[in-house]
Amino acid sequence: LAKTTQPISMDSYEGQEVNITCSHNNIATNDYITWYQQFPSQGPRFIIQGYKTKVTNEVASLFIPADRKSSTLSLPRVSLSDTAVYYCLVGDITGGSYIPTFGRGTSLIVHP
Amino acid sequence: DVKVTQSSRYLVKRTGEKVFLECVQDMDHENMFWYRQDPGLGLRLIYFSYDVKMKEKGDIPEGYSVSREKKERFSLILESASTNQTSMYLCASRIPTSGNHEQYFGPGTRLTVT
Fold first, then answer.
1. Sequential DSSP letters for chain A
2. Which residues in chain B have Cβ-Cβ distances shorter than 8 Å to A51?
3. Does the beta-carbon distance from A99 to B45 stay under 8 Å?
4. pLDDT tens-digit profile of B13-47?
5. Which residues in chain A have their CB less than 8 angstroms from residue B90's CB?
6. Which domains does chain A have, with CATH numbers?
7. Domains of chain B, earliest start first
């Protein structure tokens, strides 16, 4: 299974763009990259997933370079409510054999 | 909306008790998971189930067992609770569709073993 590395914590201010980078040097050909968000005392919530290049939805953007050895979650104009832990996962769900491994995630604190 | 429910939000048990944590999902998902979450350690996988009556050990299965008799229900069992099993327990489910890795999580059960 591909292992991921993320910063343990990040700080930002309201209105700024936040970029959280995840390293996954041994990502396999069929692996997807998935990001989750978790607020205190809640279960994680799916944010975005991608395979290559760029994916955007109403919450975030995901940038994946050509070699796919890293990915960057971009949160535009963060607010205090974006304070949460963000997890990067890598794997291939085909055939139901993908075991999602969450790791410790990145704790983002947004300041007023 | 997909809904994953867990039987209790908070639970207090005594050392040595047998504890059942129940998880129910309403979207006919094949795969179900049990995690525990502790400060500074992230989410760690205890057991998962690909489908009814199927189960596989995760990273930390010691001291736990599971049961999946029906597709919608996945139970985590602590045969003899110990204080080091005090934790937040999270259940999740998903459909194993190629290209879709979204897991749906329940609200969690905070278990305290005294």
1. ----B--SEEEEETT--EEEEEE-TT--TT-EEEEEEE-TTS--EEEEEESSEEEE-SS-EEEE-TT-SEEEEEESS--GGG-EEEEEEEE--GGG------BS-EEEEEE-
2. 99
3. yes
4. 999 999 999 999 998 999 999 999 998 888 899 99
5. 43-44
6. 9-111 (2.60.40.10)
7. 4-97 (2.60.40.10)
